[in-house]
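Supplementary Text 2. Reproducibility record for the structural model of the 266-residue chain.

All settings were left at their defaults, and a single model was retained for analysis rather than an ensemble. We include the record here because the model underlies the residue-level annotations in Supplementary Table 4.
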Amino acid sequence: MQEGITRGEKFGGRALFAFRRDYCYYNSDMSEINSQFLPAYDDMVKAGMHFGRKKTIFHPGMKPFVYTLKDNIYILDLVKTREGILKAADFLKKAIAEGKIILFVGLTKQSADGIRAVAEALGMPYVINRWLGGTLTNFKTIIARVKYLEDLEKDQAGGGFDKYTKKEKILKEREIAALKQRFDGIRKLVKVPDVLFVSSLKESQLPVHEAKRTGVKVVGIVNTDSDPKQIDIPVPANDNSKRSIELILEAIKAGVKNLEEIKIQA
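Retained model, structure tokens:
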């Protein structure tokens, strides 16, 4: 397929790159994919999805995903970004179809809301804001804390707190609130997950390290300052823009559902 080339105009005071449009990635490995769920190039550019990091902190492993260098800032190739989204959606869809558990991780303020939304939409567990060390490598202890939280909630709902003094009740309620903040998103994590999705490889080094130690596959967003070989399926994109992350998550969610519909219709 011949690729059209459109010269970028000014946006946000920065010169945009010449990016390829009307391009649909399709090959024999993804024969069941309908790419209509992918974000439009214009929307990707407006979200700043193409902005990489400064030249001084560039990781050479990201060279295949770079379009050009502009004002000492690397510009990502959005064609490669779309390819990454397609591969990620296909991989996650197959994992869900096989009954596997995907743990969504968003440790930055830009990604917390989006990660929680897509995880809940797909009925999967999630971790936002802070990763508890040992979530994967010390799984039994983490699950024990989740059970303790649920036991406290059952006790509270059943009137078990009535035996406590006012001060003791307040302390128990505070304990529940603190535990919910830490463990609420992983109530559905009944076993070590099969797949980890991270909203930023750079900000998710600990969970990615634990995933590798426990044999968990990793899918995630990678900017130009990180090594894409650390994870199984990289999605090259700006991981510091809230809208960029949201577009990717929305596309993956729509893609997984779209692929499920295609399977049903077949």
